[in-house]
Amino acid sequence: MEIKFGTDGWRGVMARDFTFDNVRRVAQAIADYLKTKPHKTKARHTVVVGYDRRFQSESFAEEISRVLQANGHTTYLLAETLPTPAISLMTAKLKAVGVVVTASHNPPAYNGVKIKLEGRAAPESVTAEVETFLGRAVPLRDGPVARRSYKKEYLAYLRSQIDPSRFMGKLPRPALIDYMHGAAGGLMGELCGGRNLIEMRAEHDPLFGGVNPEPVDANLKALKERVLAEKALIGIALDGDADRVAVVDDKGRYLTPCQVFPILLDYLIGTRGLKGKIVQSVSMGYLSGRIAQAYGLPFEELPVGFKHVGEQIALGEAAMGGEESGGYAWKGGLPERDGLLTGLLMLEICAKLKKTPSQLWEAIEKKYGKSSFRRVDFHVSKPVADKAVFTAKIQKKLPQKLAGAPIKTVLSFDGIKIILQDDHWLLMRPSGTEPLIRTYAESDSPQKTQTLLEAAAKWVNAHI
Asked: How is residue 448 annotated by DSSP?
């Protein structure tokens, strides 16, 4: 089979695509790539290998560690399951390379491999070069693999960024944390010492309780009901490897990333004094752009994939970034999304501003405008081979108006995004690795958003 790295790693169905033989091929390709990039002080690299709670993830990680070790690289396999951001942290602290066995938010049948460098996702230039080494012979060697625990280091890093002991006791009501049976299970409790915190779905379950570990509205019914039943201040959900986060407000309503990002952004700029360029993936809306403009800060849209956001922060070109799938980062920490860290920031905001999440959103809405955002995915027979061709075909069919409003701008660097005069927008974007065409829309009302999505459905169905 063809092994292809997407926006954040290689993923496949276990026993069909994601097999031990293919995992060894990927591990050997990483090992061979590293041999061509000598470390500044030694011929071989240090590699930290982590894994999530999926079926056989630890066994796959052991196999990767053996292959890397057989190639002469100093390899440390995690002693316990930790969130992906923990491995990113150790790449920065140890000047190491990180390899994580995880399929993130995908269904239980999937698994995958992510590569981390310098505290963030490996850029496309690295993964593309790794792919060129696939297919080489794999030297195998039995024997023990060195294991190390980095949980203390990761928890210490989180506390150094946001110390929950300063505000957890000030919350007027308890907070709910939903681990969705993922890699972060129990860690928020350790961070907060159990104060004002209720944990759910923390136990290990490789089937994720029958719900995909993706923190989106459709998968958070249990959290929304529990928030209301417990009269909780907030519900925070983490995905399978805990680098993404979702928020449910005190009224049991799911807040979209197009609502969460403005809340975080307005606080970091207005209260913490954050300064610098604001960046976001093209699949996000424009309340964040209005906030940046209000504070006199530059604003830029990037292709989908948090590695693009992380790169801008790592290079010092951006102060904060966000993406539609629930990943956020800001300068001062790793240039990497981290669900636990963002969850702590939401708790800090509620405590410091003495507002509930619903009140925080009402304040943003009143000042910067309303947001009704939805995403609809269309399954196709095979992945779209050429995004540029797809985009060109759609662009030729565009009218002068859409949903009764004039088209202001069209962006075509990652799918096709149509922006109307009132900043309502529609994005159609083929997945680079999956047989999906994703459509996104945002307006100031559910009805207008639905109209935009219906227009997208007609164009996509014509393409299919």
From this structure: H
Say if residues 231 and 225 touch (Cβ distance below 8 Å): no
* CB-CB contact of 440 with 457 (8 Å): no
CA dihedral 11, 14, 20, 24 (to 10 degrees): -10
Q: And the tokens for 182?
A: 């993922």
User: pLDDT tens digits, residue range 5-17?
Assistant: 988 899 999 999 9
The Cα-based distances of 85 to 22, 151, 368, 399 in angstroms read 25, 11, 32, 44
Q: Among the residues of 194-338, which ranges form H helices?
A: 221-230, 257-270, 287-294, 306-314
Q: Whole-structure pTM over 0.85, yes or no? A: yes
How far the first Cα of the chain sits from its last, in Å, is: 24
Rounded to whole angstroms, how far apart are CA atoms 128 and 132? Answer: 7
Q: For residues 167, 172, 173 and 174, what is the CA-based torsion angle, rounded to 10 degrees?
A: 10
Which is nearest to 126 in space by CA: 223, 214, 29, 44?
29
Positive or negative torsion for Cα 99, 100, 104, 108: positive
Task: Give the pLDDT of residue 1.
Answer: 65
d(CA 145, CA 75): 8
C-alpha pair distances (Å), 461 with each of 14, 395, 403:
30, 15, 18
Mean pLDDT of the chain: 94
Beta bridge partners of 402: 405
- Can you tell me the distance from the alpha carbon of 278 to that of 26, in angstroms, rounded to the nearest whole number? 35
- The pLDDT assigned to 433 comes to 65
The answer to whether the beta carbons of residues 349 and 267 sit under 8 Å apart is yes
Total count of residues recorded for the chain: 464
Which residues of the chain are modeled with pLDDT < 50?
A: none
d(CA 258, CA 364): 11
Tokens of 362: 């009402």
